[in-house]
Specification:
With 121 residues, the protein is mainly beta. Helix content is 0%, strand content 61%. It is built from no helices and eleven strands. Strands 2, 4, 5, 6, 9, 10 and 11 form a seven-stranded mixed beta sheet that branches. The radius of gyration is 14 Å and the shape is elongated. The chain starts with a strand and ends with a strand. The mean pLDDT is 96.
Length: 121
């Protein structure tokens, strides 16, 4: 069993900052890419940022220059530092990880339970 547990969501004022964390645990052989997605009410889930094991990152245009994704491979944890927050960043944020789980080492995409981020003006 593999679990992704997110933390760090909450309320922030426009221009403020929040930091999300997501820790993967369980029968993990290896973790490939990790990332963050978000879904606002009535909208489709969208990519926010991804990071691969070597550290290369990819961002949605809407968050470039404001959000930073990072990971601690020793802790199987991915972070999302969100600065200069805007009301349109209000969403449920989901952690995602591409994991080879034990014992089969089959590659599978896992999701966290989601954490609410609300930005008010």
């Amino acid at each position: 069993q593999v679990q992704l547990v997110e933390s760090g969501g909450g309320l922030a004022q426009t221009g403020g900052s929040l930091r999300l964390s997501c820790a993967a645990s369980g029968s993990i052989f290896s973790i490939n890419a990790m990332g963050w997605y978000r879904q606002a009410p009535g909208k489709q889930r969208e990519l926010v940022a991804t990071i691969i094991g070597g550290g290369s990152t990819n961002y949605a245009d809407s968050v470039k220059g404001r959000f930073t994704i990072s990971r601690d491979n020793a802790k199987n944890t991915v972070y999302l530092q969100m600065n200069s927050l805007k009301p349109e960043d209000t969403s449920v944020y989901y952690c995602n990880a591409d994991i080879n789980a034990m014992p089969s080492r089959i590659r599978y995409m896992y999701w966290g339970q989601g954490t609410q981020v609300t930005v008010f003006s």
